[in-house]
Each structure stands twice: as structure tokens, then as C-alpha cells.
Amino acid sequence: MSEPVLEVEGLRKVYPTRSGKDFTAVDGVSLFLGKGETLGIVGESGSGKTTVAKMIAGMIPTTEGQMRLNGKTLDRASRPREDKRNVQYIFQDPVSSLNPRLKVRDLIAEPLKLYFKLSGKDIDTRVDQLLNDVGLPLEYRSRYPKELSGGQCQRVGIARALAAEPSIIVCDEPTSALDMTIQSQILELLKALQRSKGVSYLFIAHGLEVIYSISHRVMVMKEGVVVEEGETADIFHRPQHMYTQSLIGAIPKIDIPQFTD
Fold it and tell me: CATH number, domain at 10?
């Protein structure tokens, strides 16, 4: 087992409701993420997977539970800048996640200015390196998000996340808004970046097709709890829980017609 980057124990999120009866979105979730590893978290809408991701990223506070990042216990309600830097987020909608008023250069430069004391020249050099890392031409520096395709916007989002030099990147359904060809390209890019930089991913997905291609381990959630967890091959070939079996059974099968002369 690789050295731990993230350890989560008993994570719980409860929301009050107008009726007075609390709603438990996440109940007792524990997980482990190793260095350079991808943990896929899968489940239907409302399963709690994105709530888990946002608590780990510090975007929403937890109700109960403990999280340790690189051996350091994280505060449940607030985080210092260094802890925020170490967990970055890639959003589902690559276009709306980018400020339309900023050029690509400035979008990527934002985390560089926030987390590192770099001069203007050093920022420009780093932006160029990041554009190269994600496969975008340098002339894209002066473009606005509206001038880019969805796949290109997602590459900018990945570059922004990488700019912070995080230990973990949360990928919240980052390919679901893209067509199949672009999905494949983005997944290959993420895998290549993981190999070269050693970053760990929490990869959130609605279905198992994408999870299979990128994850080392899979955690299956339903109604706020983990129903099954294991190595990717075990989950796909030897699923134990009925819900996991139903998810795998829902993966489309391609029937190739037989042709005769």
C-alpha cells in the first residue's frame, strides 16, 4: 500500500430542514487515498459522493468525522491557505467554472499569485509551462473562455488546479459534459499528469464506465453510505453488493452485427 496522502474517518454531513427533521447526506464515510493513486467514487444522484468531495476540499464544513492530509489533521470548519492549496478541484462544467471576464493567462495565474510569491516574468514562464502540460498552444494565453471549446476549457481548469501544486485533485465528473472523443482525451491527459507529477485523484462519477479506465480503487456510495469498496478489477469482475451489480449491469453493451457475403 502506498504512503497515505489522505485519511478520512467517520465523515458525516447533516442538513437541517424546515420540517425540523434533519437530513443526513453523508453518514460515516471513511476512505484512504495513497500518493499517486486514483480513488473513484461512484453512485447515483443523491448518493452523497459530491458532498464527500466538497467536504474533503474544504468547500463545505463537516458535521462529524476526521480528515488527515499528509499526516496533518484538518480543521472541520476552516483551513489555512496551505491546506487549501493542497486540495484542488476540477468542476463538472468546464465553461461555467471559468470567469468569462479573464483571459486564459490570468485564469491560470490566479492560483500562482495566491499561493506563491512569483514575479510577473516568473508567472508568465509558469503559465507557459502549465499550458504545455495540458496540451494547449501558447497563443491561447490571450483568449477568453468563450473562444474555447468545452474540452479546451477543461484543460484550462486542469492547468489552474495544477498551478497550486496540490497533493490531491478532486475531479468532480470532469468529463460528463464532453463528447466521447474529448472524454477519452481528457482522461488520458489526467493519467499522464498523474504519472509525471505524482498527484493523487479523487474521481467522482455517476456511472462506472469512466471510473474503470482511470481508477486504482473504487468506492460505491448509495444514500450517503459506502456499500462497497475495493480494487477496480474486483469491483467490476466480482461485485458483492446488489447495488454495485445493478450499476455494472447498466453499462451499455455494444452489439456488433454479423455480416455475410
Answer: 3.40.50.300
